[in-house]
Design a protein that fits this description.
The chain contains 24 helices and 5 strands. By secondary structure, the chain is of the alpha/beta class. It has 4 domains: 83 residues, no CATH class; 102 residues, archaeoglobus fulgidus dsm 4304 fold (2-Layer Sandwich); 195 residues, no CATH class; 98 residues, no CATH class. The longest helix has 32 residues.
Length: 605
């Protein structure tokens, strides 16, 4: 391309600032302003320029310097980013530690200094092999471990958990509520609110929602606290179908109790007496009405006081146990308020009966206080009597069934009907023990243990005639002819009282349903219908199940069948507690009423 003239070629390296630089302005004039007509001359000049100082300085400033150094603002930003990442990691470590302490119910700070607080010591434990954690703990400020920060983190966790629980509650069409109040160690009344619901898969859930500190524990204050909780959590009272409290008048009062006030707002919220409370009351009534069991438990309370409230006698009991070589468990204290946890305590007394008898003999020689000696001698003399020994074994047997029932009733997924069936099953178990055969076996067992423990033989109590003011009629007083006959009366009396008290506390289901459905459910007619149906099914063979027509014919002979159909409709539809308006129809006709839905599958059988 000989005819082409290159007018200019621009070079990239920076030009030096000195005007007399050897390769300064001359290079600019020769290579940029004038240009080249011969490319060979350009390449020669370019090679000279590559060896120049100005070119080397320009390359260092543009290429090498940015790779080895950073801008000040960029360097500050990178340090800030590293600081944020470290703070985020430390916050995550602190949050996980607080979550663990909160989940285990442990105090964050305790009563000592910040250095000895549980949270600080846990961070020290987790800082092993991590020097950055120790540096963070030893910072003077902004380390997210102050009491205010701890409370804020706990509050955020609590709200997160509560939102998840409320989301599940809101998805359920119906709920039930359980409320109870108690006095804490600081002598303040605390009210706990627990909600129970089922999901679409019929899985039962029960969660604690809120704890209220009340200035008064009257029905109106508790009712207002419950309304406040439902309003805060946006749970409509229209979804409430069950309420469970204890049996005190404040909660279960017919006119002014909490249950009555809730039913005024939502009549379909059926009140159920807490089965745990009912069982506790039943056992309490049993023991109080049976004088033999009451005297036995009073002696056991005194026995526990002499041992548990005296470290000296408790140490002596351990020494006696080691000398004898017994492997019996330690004596357990009787709970003064709960009656359904006493079987284990009575069993521990029976297991250490011989050790305790030796303890009384040793204690009498080492005690100088006359009042304490009298108490020890009284308990020791009672333990030597056959009556106390017999009632102790009898009480342990009866209370054992109550303790097992109480543990079963505390299961989460247990329904009200299942709890009632378990209570009736316990009653049937006690009924099976009420016969002469089981009493004779029980008597033989007590006799064998009496001989092993060197207890006095059974004796008849002195015959005492009732005062004339207490006598009814002219019948001659009857007395037991033998010790076995007398203790047979005690055995049967204790079982009868135990069964009667449990039936009284748990056998209220039919009355509850009848009161709930008002006039739609007649109690007398329902009892007759259930008795008739029970006879039909019990008398029929397995392959000959009564037909619907035979049931209609049998029931129509005893009760009004129209009322029976109305009652059946109330059971199936479960309407609110107002009278169901239904059209009158002829029972004998084959035309079904629109208000009489078909029975579910399997109901006919």
């Amino acid at each position: 391309m000989a005819g082409v003239k290159l007018t200019a070629i621009v070079t990239l390296p920076s030009l030096p600032d000195e005007p007399h630089h050897p390769h300064g302005l001359s290079f600019l004039q020769e290579n940029v302003t004038k240009g080249f007509c011969n490319w060979k001359d350009a390449t020669v000049n370019f090679k000279k320029h590559l060896q120049s100082k100005s070119h080397r300085e320009a390359v260092d400033a543009v290429v090498k310097l940015p790779k080895t150094t950073r801008d000040v603002a960029e360097q500050l930003s990178r340090a800030h980013r590293a600081e944020k990442e470290q703070a985020r990691d430390m916050l995550h470590l602190i949050l996980s530690s607080i979550r663990f302490l909160g989940r285990q119910g442990l105090a964050m700070r305790g009563t000592g200094s910040d250095e000895s607080a549980n949270l600080t010591q846990m961070l020290y434990l987790r800082a092993k092999g991590k020097p950055e954690v120790l540096q963070w703990i030893h910072k003077s400020a902004c380390k997210h471990t102050s009491p205010g920060n701890q409370n804020e983190m706990l509050k955020l966790m609590a709200h997160h958990v509560l939102r998840k629980i409320l989301a599940n509650i809101h998805s359920s069409p119906f709920i039930a509520v359980t409320v109870d109040e108690a006095t804490d160690k600081a002598n303040k009344e605390k009210l706990t609110i627990v909600v129970r619901w089922i999901n679409e898969d019929f899985v039962v859930s029960e969660e604690f929602l809120r704890l209220y500190c009340l200035s008064a524990i009257d029905a109106q204050s508790i009712f207002e606290a419950m309304k406040d909780a439902f309003l805060r959590f946006q749970i409509p009272l229209a979804k409430l179908r069950g309420q469970c409290y204890d049996g005190y008048s404040t909660m279960a009062g017919v006119k002014a109790g909490v249950a009555a006030k809730i039913e005024q707002v939502e009549p379909r919220a059926v009140f159920t007496h807490c089965y745990g409370h009912a069982l506790n009351l039943a056992v309490s009534d049993t023991v109080k009405q049976c004088l033999a069991m009451k005297d036995c438990l009073d002696t056991c309370f005194e026995l526990m006081k002499l041992i548990e409230f005296s470290p000296k006698r408790e140490a002596m009991l351990c020494e006696v146990k080691e000398e004898i070589g017994s492997d019996a468990p330690a004596v357990q204290t009787l709970c003064p308020t709960r009656w359904t946890v006493r079987a284990e305590s009575l069993a521990s007394i029976l297991a250490k009966y011989d050790n305790i008898q030796v303890l009384w003999v040793t204690s009498l020689h080492k005690t100088s206080d006359t009042e304490m000696k009298a108490r020890i001698q009284g308990v020791a003399s009672q333990m030597q009597l056959f009556k106390f020994f017999f009632c102790l074994i009898l009480s342990e047997m009866i209370l054992r069934h109550s303790d097992r029932l109480s543990q079963t009733l505390q299961q989460l997924k247990l329904s009200s009907v299942e709890g009632h069936e378990l209570a009736m099953l316990t009653v049937k178990t006690l009924e099976s023990l009420r016969n002469d055969e089981n009493f004779n076996m029980f008597w033989l067992t007590v006799e064998k243990k009496r001989i092993l423990q060197n207890i006095d033989e059974p004796r008849l109590a002195r015959r005492r005639k009732l005062p004339s003011r207490l006598e009814l009629g002219i019948a001659v007083a009857e007395f037991a002819l033998s010790p076995k006959e007398e203790y047979r009366r005690v055995y049967f009396e204790a079982l009868d009282l135990a069964m009667a008290c449990r039936k009284q506390c748990f056998d209220e289901e039919l009355d509850l349903v009848c009161n709930f459905f008002y006039e739609d459910f007649n109690r007398e007619e329902s009892v007759a219908q259930l008795a008739t149906l029970g006879e039909l099914f019990s008398s029929a063979e397995e392959e000959e199940v009564p037909s619907v027509e035979s049931i209609k014919n049998s029931v129509s002979a005893t009760v009004d069948l129209a009322s029976y159909k109305c009652n059946r409709r109330a059971i199936i539809q479960c309407p609110p507690p107002y009278k169901v308006l239904a059209e009158e129809q002829d029972v004998s006709s084959n035309v079904e009423s629109p208000y009489d839905p078909a029975l579910p599958s399997g109901f006919d059988r």
